[in-house]
Amino acid sequence: MLVAAAVWRATPALIVALDERFGEPVDAYVNGSQVWLRDDGPAGMPVEWRLHPVAGYQRPQGTGTYEVFSETALALATGAPPPAPLERLWDGLEAFAAYGDEIEPRPLVVAAVAALGIEPEAAGLVDHDRIGDAWERSAGRVSVIDALLDQLLTSGESP
Q1: CA distance 41 to 11
Q2: Sequence-ordered list of residues with C-beta below 8 angstroms from that of 145, at least 6 positions apart, any chain
Q3: What is the CA radius of gyration of the chain?
Q4: Whole-model pTM?
Q5: Strand, coil or helix: what is 31?
Q6: Using CA atoms, how far apart are residues 10 and 68, in angstroms rounded to an integer?
Q7: Contacting residues for 132 by C-beta, under 8 A, at least 6 apart
Q8: What's the CA gap between 61 and 84, in Å, rounded?
Q9: Tens digit of pLDDT at every position of the chain (159 positions)
Q10: Would 93 disulfide with which of 3, 8, 61, 145, CB 3.0-4.6 Å?
């Protein structure tokens, strides 16, 4: 099953924008994922915004699972040292329709840019099952963002 998705590489500006526009994630996982569920889609469709961790993610010592994002975002916004370098935390952000709702890529991109204020690096249709299976087989040692971008960029799709 193919799902419309928009993808951004992790940058300090992206992390700060997420914090300023979305606030704290609604959920954080020990694997490093950070999640926001918001009604940002067309006609208020729920969108899942998932900040994907780097392959082999290790939580910074002394920082709790639920504090990693807020402490990192604050540090990046103020110029303070983050709990760990950004490139050791997250590869990027993915936005897609939550709860299996169907949407075409272009309306998702328009809604995502309106919500976040940053154009995605790529957008189109992706196979979440294939990516999830590869991530599971590798015990989290593959980059979900790299896999998403590989599918999107080799298919010729873009924002």
Answers
A1: 23
A2: 7, 9, 10, 52, 91, 92, 94
A3: 15
A4: 0.94
A5: coil
A6: 15
A7: none
A8: 9
A9: 899 999 999 999 999 999 999 999 999 999 999 999 999 999 999 999 999 999 999 999 999 999 999 999 999 999 999 999 999 999 999 999 999 899 999 999 999 999 999 999 999 999 999 999 999 899 888 999 999 999 998 865 555
A10: 8
